[in-house]
Amino acid sequence: MSATMSTNNKFTWLLKREFWEYRGAFFWTPAITAAVMLSLVVMALIIAESTANRAGVNLNGINFNEISTHLNEGNAAKLYAGLNIGLISLGFPIGIALFFVLFSYGIGALYNDRADRSVLFWKSLPISDTETVLAKVIAMALIAPVLAVGAMIALHLGFLVILSFWVLAHGINPMLLWSPTHLVSLWMKLILLIPINALWALPSIGWLLLCSSFARSKPFLWAVALPVVSGVLVSMFHLMNSLSLPSGWYWTNIVGRLLFSIVPGTWVNVADLRHLDGDDRLPEALNELLSFNSAGHLLSSPNFLIGIVAGVAMITAAIYFRRRRVESFA
Amino acid sequence: MSADMTEPKNAAPIVRAKGLSKRYGTTVALDHVDLEIAAGRVVGLIGPNGAGKTTALKAILGLTEFDGELSVLGLDPRTHRTELMQQMCFIADVAVLPRWLRVGEAVDFVAGVHPRFSRERCEAFLARTKIKHTQRVRELSKGMIVQLHLALVMAIDAKLLVLDEPTLGLDILYRKEFYETLLNDYFDHDKTILVTTHQVEEIERILTDLIFIRDGKIALDASMDAVGERYAEVLVAPDKAEAARALKPLSERQIFGKSIFLFDGIDHARLAALGELHKPSVADLFVATMKGTYA
After folding, report:
1. Which of A77, A109, A259, B197 has the most neighbouring CB atoms within 10 Å?
2. Is B33 in the same domain as B67?
3. Measured on CA atoms in the order B125, B109, A23, A108, is the torsion positive or negative?
4. pLDDT tens track of chain B, all 295 residues?
């Protein structure tokens, strides 16, 4: 019992360690991205003020003109749907930032300390290589995404506050913008999608950590060049034809999954979205994609499940190389 | 299990190697090394670059695979590195503390993960230095980084402390302080220290045992007392130089018109007749033993 307690406690310290080292990437990157988005909103509204009478302003799917002139009890439902889209798309840059944060973190996580020899300090402590690598997996799968979602929620709140003042200035009751049920259900979705994104991201997490742990130098080159060059070869020699698959299959399911699964929501099947396309249906389409229905569909798909197995295998290999690669000791 | 319990703990060697070997391709780094290090000793592992010192330490620390047998504190370091690290510490080089880490974070982290770490002891050591908790390692001087590392390590109640060139690149004040602190505030009879360094003169006063390693083999393994009995340096006047040479000295060098001869295993009474007897320095012994290594 006490052994488990101390092990859990130890793991918490390992997670704290990751946060200390990557505070800038994990916390400040999404926070600053959110701040930049808010200042863009303010700028757009200032421009809207000077030009709104001539042309409607569209920001991330929200037509401000429409809000300023038509917001009332009657069409509120339609506006909430539109507002949802606006809030989600407002968060996209944070998702993109998260991708860059995770990519550079993954490449360096098991490499940088070998390059600067501080690996010897970490290895002088009673921490197993498995614990070390798993802490880094958790940092990528949960810590960074949780902070990104936190930044998204803060961005949503900031945006609604700014918008409230703006509609108030136009003589409209700003309380119409605030629908707790809509907001809470949107945020609940964002939070519940974290573990789904995490499982989907395992092939990328595993691949980046494996390269980071394996490479004696230039882990970035390993991580990017290996899948891309193999993809080019596959395409050039039509290797997939022997499996009756198009070359595109390799790019999507191997190269794409290794490199881009850490972009949140990439499991969304764009093909499914196409039949819903069209301006009117866009809100429905996005809602559909974020629905638990489509998530449930995902959870049973072979792509998802095989990806998890591949991710776990690559994480295991990363642990193996973490144990062996201490060549900086010389 | 009960058999182990009844045996006094000091009887078991801290490190025991039998036929320890390691190759890198065609290079033999360790060639069937047999070694025993008892508890409560301060052992200097000394050898030229590439002699196998680092490989031996890596093997003891569980950082490399090897052939042969090796047990450290009764455990195989390859398979029990994590358990081993609860009772063993090492300082590899001045550069290994992560540069982004804050001093306070370092103390918190080690306190969090190490069951034998005493925060009070660590804070007491740090209080003697100019190091502040809010500083990052990259803001500290080289000497301060070593002070920090030493404070962290000395606060751990470990059975074996491994030091690999711990004072490399430090100025003389820090180097002296390092070993003094280590001896006065850390070392006791339950602890064992294994140290490698090129600055032999600095550690010779603190060593109890000496191991020379050359081309992956042990060239000398003796206690300092035994070394004093076995080896002797004689300052010989020119008229007796021929007689001294007849006794096959390990080495000969000239100083102030006299010759200094280093002898191995010659009766000290006999040598006293030739001239003034001295205990040889480890550095001179090392040079004589390693003759021809770089030739």
Report:
1. A109
2. yes
3. positive
4. 344 444 444 568 999 999 999 988 888 889 999 999 999 999 999 988 878 888 899 899 998 889 999 999 999 999 999 999 999 999 887 568 999 999 999 999 999 999 999 999 999 999 999 999 999 999 999 889 989 999 999 999 999 999 988 888 788 888 888 888 888 888 888 899 999 887 788 888 889 999 999 889 998 999 988 888 889 888 888 888 888 888 888 888 888 888 889 988 888 888 888 888 888 888 888 888 887 665 5
Q: Which domain holds residue B251?
A: 226-289
User: What is d(CA B210, CA B222) in angstroms, rounded to the nearest whole number?
Assistant: 6
Domain count, chain B: 2
Partner-chain residue, chosen from A117, A125, A127, that has the shortest CB–CB distance to B93: A117
In this complex, which of A13, A14, A117 lies closest to B96 when CB atoms are compared? A117
Q: Could you tell me if B59 and B139 lie in one domain?
A: yes
How far is the first Cα of chain B from the last one, in angstroms, to the nearest whole number? 52
> Which chain A residue lies closest to B103 (C-alpha atoms)?
A20
**89-128 of A, contacting B, C-beta below 8 A:** 113, 116-128
b/e per residue, B215-230, with b = 16+ CB within 10 A?
bbbbbbbeebeebeeb
Residue of B nearest to A326 (CA): B63
Backbone angles phi, psi at B164, to 5 degrees: -110, 105
Instruction: Look at residue B47 and tell me if it is in a domain.
Output: yes
Tell me whether residue B198 is in a domain: yes
Of A201, A190, A143, A149, the closest CA to residue A23 belongs to A143
Rg (C-alpha) for chain A, rounded Å, is 23
Chain A neighbors of B101, CB-CB under 8 A? 20-21
Residue bearing tokens 């002070």: B147
